[in-house]
Amino acid sequence: MSAEATNPGAPIRRRGRPRIDLRRLGRVALLGPVSRDRLPDAIGHVAEAHRAHHPNADLTILHKAYVLAESSHRGQMRKSGEPYITHPLAVTLILAELGAETTTLTASLLHDTVEDTEVTLDQVREQFGEEVCYLVDGVTKLEKVDYGTAAEPETFRKMLVATGDDVRVMSIKLADRLHNMRTLGVMRPEKQVRIAKVTRDVLIPLAERLGVQALKTELEDLVFAILHPEEYEHTRALIAAASPGSAASGEAGATATDDPLSTIAENVRAVLRDAGISAEVVIRPRHYVSVHRVRIKRGELRGTDFGRLLVLVGDDADCYAVLGELHTCFTPVISEFKDFIAAPKFNLYQSLHTAVVGPGGAVAEVLIRTHQMHKVAEAGVIALGNPYTADGTSAPQTAEPADGERADPTRPGWLSRLLAWQQSAPDPDTFWTTLRADLAEDREITVFRTDGGTLGLPAGASCVDAAYAQYGDEAHSCIGARVNGRLATLSTVLSDGDTVQLLLAEDATSGPSPDWLDHARTPAARIAITGWLGAHPQDPQGSYGSRPAGRRPGPQPMASAPSGRERSAGRAATVVVGRPDATVRLAGCCTPVPPDAVTGFTVRGGAVTVHRQECPAVARMQAAGRTPVAVGWGDAAACRVTLVAESFGRPRLLADLTEAIAAADAAIIAATVEPPSEQRVRHTYTLQLPDPAGLPALMRAMRDVPGVYDVSRAQHPAAAV
Fold first, then answer.
1. To which H or E segment does residue 470 belong?
2. SS3 of residue 357 by DSSP
3. 0.85 cut: is pTM over it?
4. β-strands 499-504, 628-629 pairing
5. Residues 181-215: pLDDT tens digits?
6. 86 to each of 31, 45, 76, 222, 587, how far by Cα in Å?
7. Which positions are catalytic?
């Protein structure tokens, strides 16, 4: 956990930043007025910050933890030349200013003792209890001598597993990394770059997902300074030029009279004051990375792009009251409106976002939230206090739903999914690569299941991801889905708020297709699919058991018979035509059978072709002025019909369909199975039925075959007649 020395350049903050200040920590604050060899008053700064959030906290255990940490680290020095105890003190002060409770602060004071001193976990457990011992163990790194190059990924795996049981483990790790990043300047440049990349790829996304924006934004700026020094200096110069005379402390109130953001802020205060709404309106400067992103997006920065207005009110209703006043008295930019109060982000964040046009056309972004929302927006899970009882079990809260999504906010859905897939990635390199890819998905969506549950998925996730999120390895037999009530392929990309129903085959031996990997975004889905494919290398059918059958001749017109009746060796239905000696044919485009309502048309040679009345060919011939011929059914007899079955591909589908047809005493005259397209298969059967009355039952039996979602009468384009 040891990292070392100077800041790569503390960002200049504009006056008026209403956020927890994490930059005022220094040696003087830590050491006090006495020599650094004694450090008797160093814990006092932590106690003061802690009491600001928890006035009734018992500080006895903090003093006890400091005594153990100071004595065990005595004689150890950081590379910057400071006593090592300054590091755990700095980490603890960061957490104290964010509002962490006493147990977290106790563990943060001791977080390096087991790793870097002779103190053992048993000693920590004996003196401070099981909870503190668990937290200290969770952030203790694995030794390179035991794990070699796998030490770093396996250490992060260990921390994440520990975080699954107690989120405070990751809170301590994030604060630890922040102080190390602040003091990284004495490291070799190549080591600075390596640590910064890991911070960018793993720690910053974790801070974002846990909602700890105060840590995330400063980590982003520190990484920016190391990995992109030229862009960092350019952005720093832009911010300095936009706020002349401002101090880096970020105290309230921009003073420049020509500052358009200050002008809009004054107008907003006046509007809310006239409306009788008690609110605090402050200017919240953007941090360096945020300004850089805006510049990349817009090309040229506006005067209002260096900050946003933050409106703090007492309760949720006031947030919407403020929004109404702003949209009434200013011109709103509707495309910028977002309601994260009604629909909070997956990391606990709540706020109303809007933008309004001020004097001279200046556009200001506005954040509206309560004071409690602001505290959570800055400190995330750290602001929740201690969600656990004294014996370490979960405190009474709303029960966590079966899908693992957030009920207890200390165990968010993304963390549950991460812990699940990491069990299937025993190889450290696979875990490390997959972890970075997973954390790179910086947006989540929520989709609803038909049973009332929800699934949290990364943006861009498909039905494949939803299937594995809901069913695990059982999703191997998934054959399709319904999205918002409509049939959809497994490749369908889901949107926030969709309702998804996954359709599983009854055949448990079916498995995924290699194509599924093209549509899987979540590690859980990709690992499960890859594992199945690796275990079935010789599987000839994959997830598409219904391979294209050999094409046979399509349905043919049945033989004609004289005397106004169609017969085919006694197998066809009898059609009665009011025209003696007319030759009759059943149309191949709609294959009518009793008791279909039918009509006829005279074609070349005087023959009469019989169509179902709803056949599209009937409307075309009537529009062409063709005169229909009255026809009807005679005695019931055997009939021929063409059916089309639409299905999702799966093993044994063709066999199951032909078995259902045979069970209905129907004979297959001709059949074609088209090649699968997006996991869908189309089957066309020309069938001979002994009795037309059995057709509805046959179609129901075919629909009941797993994987078949529709069976219909054929509607082929009619040939020219």
1. helix 463-471
2. strand
3. no
4. unpaired
5. 998 988 899 999 999 999 999 999 999 988 899 99
6. 8, 12, 10, 20, 91
7. 115-116
